[in-house]
Amino acid sequence: MPEGDKAVEQRRSAAWFGLDGKLGFVHRSKLYNRGGSGSMFDGRPVIGIANSASDLAPCNAHLGQVAEAVKRGVLMAGGVPMEFPTISLGETLMRPSAMLFRNLMAMDVEETLRANPLDGVVLLGGCDKTVPAQVMGALSVDLPTVVVTGGPALNGRFRGESIGSGTHVWKFSEEVRAGRMTQCEFRSAEACLSRSAGHCTTMGTASTMACVTEALGLSLPGSAVIPAVDAGRARIAEQAGQRIVAMVEEGLAPSRLLDRRSFENAVRVNAAIGGSTNAVVHLLAMAGRAEVALALDDFDRLAASVPLLVDLMPSGRFLMEEFHDAGGLPAVIRELGDLLDRDAMTVTGRTLGENCADAPNWRPDVVRTRKDPVAEPGSHTAVLRGNLAPDGAVIKLSAASPQLTRHTGPALVFDTIEDYDAAKDSPDLPVTPDTVLVVRNAGPVGYPGMPEIGNLAIPRKMLDQGVRDMVRVTDGRMSGTSYGTVVLHVAPEAAAGGPLALLRDGDRVTLDVPGRRLETDVPDEELAARAPKDSVSGGLRNRPAPGSGWASLYRSHVNQADTGADLDFLTGRRGHAVPRRHL
Ligand code: FES
Ligand code: MG
Hints:
Layout: H1 6-10, H2 14-17, H3 21-29, E1 46-51, H4 63-76, E2 80-85, H5 102-115, E3 120-125, H6 130-141, E4 145-149, E5 156-158, E6 161-163, H7 167-177, H8 183-190, H9 205-216, H10 231-250, H11 254-257, H12 260-272, H13 278-290, H14 296-303, H15 320-326, H16 329-336, H17 352-356, E7 381-386, E8 389-396, E9 406-414, H18 417-423, E10 436-439, H19 460-464, E11 472-474, E12 486-491, E13 508-512, E14 517-520, H20 524-530, H21 533-536, H22 549-557
Helix pairs in contact: 4-10, 5-6, 6-13, 9-12, 12-13, 12-14
Bound molecules: FE2/S2 (inorganic) cluster and magnesium ion.
Residues 59, 91-92, 127-128, 165, 199-200, 204, 206 line the site of FE2/S2 (inorganic) cluster.
């Protein structure tokens, strides 16, 4: 290491590679097995590349190629790239729910970063939970961080038309149930949906999290929407590799970039893109890690002035390829103009406004103007409260039927999603178009892991009558690719002593979106009389969860959805002080 260079001496990796004696020997010697020279240890920034590639997470399977491009960039800029694997979370394969493991993945990333000789990190994720998990972990460590997502897949194509991830699965399966599509056609559609490497093509959770991460200022401008197989994906990855080296020199850690303004921007961008309701949970958790005050109600209040600009499924017509053609997120940010705080800082070292000042919009049919939006302001997220959701619940209005957003009807309550599935096609199901379908015990503690079961299939009896949407209520989540009048994230959840546990069949439930209410007219005294003792005192949440292993730890410590469903002992920053080591 060159002597007398203060910045280099203070570099974190110097506490490993700059050491004399046997510890320095041990830290360095094994790395010579890569065939490199001692220049690895001359004080260059050491850059971690956190790679969540996995055959079990098909959306992330190509991230090895992205990592190669990042490495190229790091080397070009004079850094030392160190790629390492992280846990990966594949939305389509994991059971009971990938969400059960988001916080585990965040722990993996956090502990790996802190325990190793890293000065900065590039996070490579894609599939829904992988990006928030990596960001949560990295924010708790607070080393210079750039996010590079894997990018969306090419549009699915079926019978000459574009079909969207998730969204068309729900559409087709309803068509099969309604007898308008054969099983054979359904199976052939299956092979046409995922045409290439990359994550979901709709504005589901993966695309949403890529966009809100860019809006937060944690990824390079324009990077969120570039298709996985576009050469531009490798180009931006290479640029990120170059940029992270400079960020280490500049000491540009997330705590110097992210503040309340960044999160407000992310919440507003989520509304403008018609983003997933899952962004609510993930952004709350990320803000918790960054020690920025962000509350559930902010999602309603901040989104109220933001029109829906991006015409993508499930709220609109197009897919991520068209969004990329249009110019990507910078076009949206520029169009949002003074609705955002353009002075928020980003990884480029410039502000969000500076990054996007000249962003073109090549497809005004995809990224619409504020004068001619897809939907008027206030059509995105509403936060509901009431005696069924004292700590809040969420509804995505752009996915809901306007005529159902003010509705009172009798509850039909199911204790598990399996119970609902077994009953939904029965001709004896006591259901009318007015029925409010409730599935509880699908929250973080109850399931466990808060699965995406909220967009309950419409009962066959109703489908036969031509009913396509009904009010549904759950303490679980729904896929970002779903639609319907679905009240989600009810907090506290039934299994944590929430009042949803006390609801009975036939109780009248009112959804009043304009009034922001989710209520039952069952009087408080009657509800109190129904409450089992442990339910009033907090149910499962206040007891050690039964069993052993991760699920038990998770259930004992998970926070409720209204604060992001992080583990209670993981919120906040713990920094990157060099841990002790002795030989
Ligand atoms: Fe991975 Fe949708 S399943 S992004
Ligand atoms: Mg999803």
